[in-house]
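Q: What structure does this chain adopt?
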Amino acid sequence: MKDRPIYRKVEQWEIYDRMAGSSIYADTDKKFLPSERYDWTLLTEIELFINAVKGCKKVLDIGCGIGHPSLNIAEDVGSIIGIDKSERMIEIAKNRLRKSGANNIVFEVGDAESLKFSDKSFDAIILCGSLATFSDKKKSLQEIKRVLKKKGKVACIEANWQYQLTHERRFHEGNFRFTEKGLIRYRYVRRLLHPHKEIDYRCIIDQKSVLGKKLLSDRHFLKHKTLKTEMSIEEVEPHCTEIEYDEQEKLDPETITRLFAENGFKDIVVSGYGVMYDLLNSAGLVNKMAPYMKELSKAEAGISRFLHPLKTEMLFLTCKV
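A:
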């Protein structure tokens, strides 16, 4: 799609910078709730990273966000440097670090495509959902290779796009929203399987346009402040004053394996995880098993190598240089 005058493309780190401080990226100690499927996934991720890098002297966490998983694995490694392109995320990570009392972690602003560290500086590098957000993945992976020591490890977590599209998400979603400031906003998400990509459009509707007037006369919309729609971005575009969008290349077991292999990484292993909550929920055992969340997450991390990655929502990749 060619840029038009009212279109503005934003990078992924800008989106996360705006989200810093929101409920999911809050400046608070994380409490893991058994009723939240996402929290079971986070706990398993922590155990997977611990298993992968335990005992490593120097670890680099690229795309560390507000400090996950660095703050959770610090006791198991010598030292960690966490970097993120979002200044606001790093501010929150530093605040959480001060509260934690850990003395072997440093958080700072940094760019995966241009790491400031010397060659062969780290024993391990972890990527927790950040690889998909890199604008230039090849350049980022070459930088990772450069700063890793010989036989250095990489541990990488990503969502399995093929699984998500076939099990959980619609290919297209549109929604109008009437904000407290009196603006009509439209969000449209387009998800593609070939190539694996998600494009997220966020628009402001001209209230003097035909569509704007129609929405302002819709009693249901004015009452509930939101309205789902089947209208595509192409249909809504003529009624917009501005359109902002971001694109994210998604990954599945085959594409993530090929990406690392093409950039010279070896001993690549991709496993799956993210099934524990669903298993317990289907058996009606989520609340009963709440006291054992950590133990069950450890168990899932332990059996992840036996889970077929094509059949799980999440992917865990390990490799070496």
